[in-house]
């Protein structure tokens, strides 16, 4: 499953053998390990702990990390294919995977020191530990520069105080990348990102969120009271924290776009199957033009989203500027996830509205893809700034 980066000079819609292998492995894993119990976990808001552990053993938690740091050394295209397959079945498991891969591991590998990579990246990439990315606050969601959490410079360490909200992997993580304001006069250039370990004195996991969708994902608030963080746990130079968060989120948005695509394609596949089985007026509902039109629209939107996501991943793999492509892919794929999942419920009729049918959960899961890692409105800002610059 290890793949070297290659430069490609021509447009090519064929996946490599390695990429197909990764997709097959993720598909089989999702069917075998995630499908059983996914409805029950959603009902009970139960994090898929055992399943995520197995994902780590199979190399899904540090896919793009170099083998030197226990990763799979794979490209972003392979990562996107895996996220789509996992998300078709369980979007709660895939957000844990996406945050660990794109935000935590990628950020540490790209900007961390050798010591930080040895100590923190290696166990995260091996799936032995889970990471969390802590940017959002009660008063700082889209307006991410308005950080109230402080990291006071005390010479050889920082003293961290504040609250983070809606943190994915909040209670299951052991390694947290925490964004905090050191020098308020310098605005975003006075922000740092610090590695905080579970168990550091003054660090507490707060309330678990009771969510509309991705109910199996572990979302908590976090509290920091005079947490003493050594200086060597700062990522990058003093004041690099905001740029770190933004740069890391650029790649994260490809992961969330792939999650949205997985929700859409999973819901579409179920609706297609159901439309061939369910009969009304003496024939399968797929023989009614009203249903055919829906299926055709769903197919078209999914294909459009898939191409945009693969393009963003391809640009990233080739070292090109992918910021615009990633935001556009996330904006479009999240819209498609909501539209397709809603139509999948419609095709299922009354059955689609009850919890024992997967499309009911998928429609709820789809909504978050328009909110986290930058709302749809933020993606439009990023897109507009890119095309106008
Ligand atoms: N990539 C790299 N750098 C970027 C950037 C990007 N996409 N966007 C902004 N920056 C840099 C700018 O270059 C600037 O740096 P310099 O001054 O050194 O040039 C700095 O960041 C500040 O930029 P702006 O002046 O543009 O800042 P702004 O306040 O006007 O707006 C924003 C920036 C794009 C709106 C930003 O605040 C943003 O993206 N907000 C959304 C935050 C977000 O996505 N949160 C998700 C939470 S994490 C999560 O959801 C994880 C999960 O659990 C699933």
Please give a structural write-up.
Helix content is 51%, strand content 14%. The protein has helices spanning 17-34, 38-44, 49-57, 76-89, 91-111, 114-125, 241-277, 289-317, 323-348, 358-368, 376-388; strands at 131-134, 150-153, 157-168, 175-181, 191-197, 203-208, 219-230, 279-280, 283-284. The two termini are 39 Å apart. It has a 4-stranded antiparallel sheet with strand order 2-3-7-6, covered by helices on one side. Strands 1-4-5 form a 3-stranded mixed sheet. The chain has 11 helices and 9 strands. Helix 4 (76-89) crosses helix 7 and helix 9 runs antiparallel to helix 10. The longest helix is centred in the middle third of the chain and has 37 residues, at 241-277. The chain is globular. It is of the alpha+beta class and 389 residues long. Bound molecules: acetoacetyl-coenzyme A. Acetoacetyl-coenzyme A is lined by residues 95, 99, 133, 135-136, 142, 144-145, 168, 188, 242-243, 246-247, 249-250, 323, 372-374, 378, 381-382.
